[in-house]
Write a structure and sequence with these properties.
about 55% helix, mainly alpha
Length: about 110
């Protein structure tokens, strides 16, 4: 649910506590209310994922560490398994945006894959 999909009860609980919204009791609110969807996405982007590392998605993006943002969002469901097709597609989009919008070279595979 949401623009950055929340999963696992611990994330609904933590986001709800941070935002003052009972998301653990009403997780569908994220899908039904665009403001809540944005608030939870921003909360997730700016909050550390302690089970993964102490940094945030925002921090890793600033460092151009696209792969680590993927790890924080999708974890073991996508990472540490080589580069599955869905991750490669995301990398291709990322490189295309880097090129078209910022005139940047493709990212380094060691930092854009997880």
């Amino acid at each position: 649910r949401g623009f950055i999909q929340l999963s696992w009860n611990c994330n609904y609980n933590d986001a709800g506590n941070a935002l003052g919204i009972p998301l653990l009791e009403d997780p569908d609110r994220i899908a039904a209310d665009p403001q809540t969807a944005w608030e939870t996405a921003i909360w997730f982007w700016k909050s550390p994922r302690p089970s993964i590392s102490s940094s945030t998605c925002e921090y890793e993006a600033i460092l151009d560490n696209f792969g680590e943002t993927t790890r924080k969002i999708n974890g073991a469901l996508e990472c540490d398994q080589g580069v599955p097709p869905n991750q490669q597609l995301r990398i291709d989009y990322y490189d295309e945006i880097r090129s078209l919008c910022y005139n940047m070279d493709p990212g380094n595979l060691s930092t854009i894959s997880c």
